[in-house]
DNA sequence: CTGTTAGCGCTTTCAG
DNA sequence: CTGAAAGCGCTAACAG
């Protein structure tokens, strides 16, 4: 690395940008006409004047100052886009839709990445407010009505993405969580798994997670025959009834994975490991040794063991599970447990994991459309736009 | 989906935000004092006045308008961050560093995602200019000096990330490409591979790709014994000399993968397949049928076959290769070819692919620091900051 | 210590 | 068709 450091501070004499006044002078006319030209009011300009202006602008390489325009007009075409976590492929994809829509509607998105920090979130929201954005699209984490106060309180329209915010009434667009979770669960059930673990991050605060988890439990309860009682929701809730390998009812569990806390994750995964070993009929002795069960190294899972599947509530959770399983059971972990995930990251295809793809692009696009309408003054009651997910079956669940 | 559409357009009567004038009136003083308060010039305010102002601000929930401040001051603390492709994990990681640095330096990054569209790139650069950002950090694709003209021409400082821009002299921070490529190549060589394919996107335009490819060729040429002549660089260049399985010199090839063109990719991959099948001594009758060379279809890799490795110039290329190989050779493709990639995406660990991790966070952080210095007027000659990559050996190359 | 006075660059009445 | 004048919300000399 070569980093010279001749710190010779001397406030650069930037070749001052041309202003509307300069152009007016250069074109031998008044600022008003220039302004008219800039705003496309061509019909009100004589061809001659128009030509002179055009020339002057070119000669001076003039570019109108958006800030100034915004100040005067009271609208700057800026909207804020608050993202909880760019590390999640979901977010990036939604963003693509947002960008496309903004482009189409002449808006400029101010992208703010909270990087999973509630504090950042607050800071950005506040910042967006001071920059007088015309609206905000929010996909955040700990957002409570209170956090959104500075913006919503200022009368700045907001539309929510993926999750609702408790006290707040606002448009929201996202996945049809209930349907998606049900779709996934049914697929697993139909594929004949006897035990399904729904892994999800702490969901008390996040509506989408809540809905997914609830729908999973319901779907488990509604298996084929009679309806089952809903299991209690807790660290590790239990849903449905025990099914003995064959055709009985499949068993359902909820596993909370607090990705923000390594120790907790560790504990949850241990819980899971125990279940897998049990279901799979294979004793597994910790990090050193392994599987000293069935004599022959034949198949990893004993013949009559229960088939177990993991249902990840989103990509980050799925990745966490996959990494763990791979570390524990080796490259061949999928022969032991199936994995299904909501979200469809690139490694899913590579790894053969079944997923439920969210219509991310459209989610982003619609969000901007909603926001745009609000900005234009539409007064409709808060709307919810729930888009369907698409099941992509891969090797993991279709052996 | 439920989307009501009672489009009752009625330009919302937003509860107008309080202005500095309102506060002044409310506090029974002049705007100047308010301004002073806002700018922390507390020492110049009597405790009494100060208290009144404080109260007034709170009462009115006043928030200074950044646009107006910027207009007056001539600086708005905004910097532009132009990204070529958020889909690439590298980009997101760099962004984290950028955000952290901005936070620390009191800057607000305007993130612009070109999504691999040269046109977008131009548009955004232009836009950033009109918003009068104080500087830009550029990580772009087709950027030629010309595209950057609007900004650099305006005297707006710019710092490049990852790649240089031909005609432009500006600070740049990125990976030490030569060292990284050499590191990777040497690792492969030392691991005993007999044939190495360096896969890279078209590199004529992108300095970092160029450097990586060149360094790869050099490293191949500099193998153990005598130096070998540099192979020609072309669609499929050849480097180094043929080595017969055992201890001879390893053979090197460059494979260009134009990810933007499916057909081209197809062709390049076919080329690669042939090589793999040949090296691997195994007839593989793919869906089209091919390789009618070696008779027996015995084990995937014959005993005395050459060991072949792929060296991907970055994550997108690596992903493309991995997906293809998996599709062609099944889940067990890694027993046939080894894969090493510059960049360390999450699926690398999951999949056991060896990588060279870039110090992404630091790259982003340094870029902002450089830019900040420039904004403050530092006049030093253009600097290059080359950070080292870290080799992360995984199963793929360490059997 | 505090207020008055000019604008920053642009849009928008309101008269020509 | 065209321009002069009055600000948008805020800061920065200058005087008190």
TrEMBL record, chains A, B:
CDD domains documented for this protein: HTH_LacI
Give the InterPro entries listed for this entry: HTH_LacI, LacI/GalR-like_sensor, Lambda_DNA-bd_dom_sf, Peripla_BP/Lac1_sug-bd_dom, Peripla_BP_I
Q: Which SMART domains did the record assign?
A: HTH_LACI (SM00354)
Feature: compositional bias, Low complexity: 1-21
Keywords in alphabetical order, please.
Answer: DNA-binding, Transcription, Transcription regulation
Indicate the segments annotated as coiled coil, or none if absent. Answer: none
Occurrences of domain HTH lacI-type (ranges): 18-73
**Positions of region (Disordered):** 1-22, 280-299
Origin, by domain of life?
Answer: Bacteria
Which GO molecular function annotation, any one, does this entry have? transcription cis-regulatory region binding
**What residue stretch is flagged as signal peptide?**
none
Stated name of the protein: LacI family kdg operon repressor
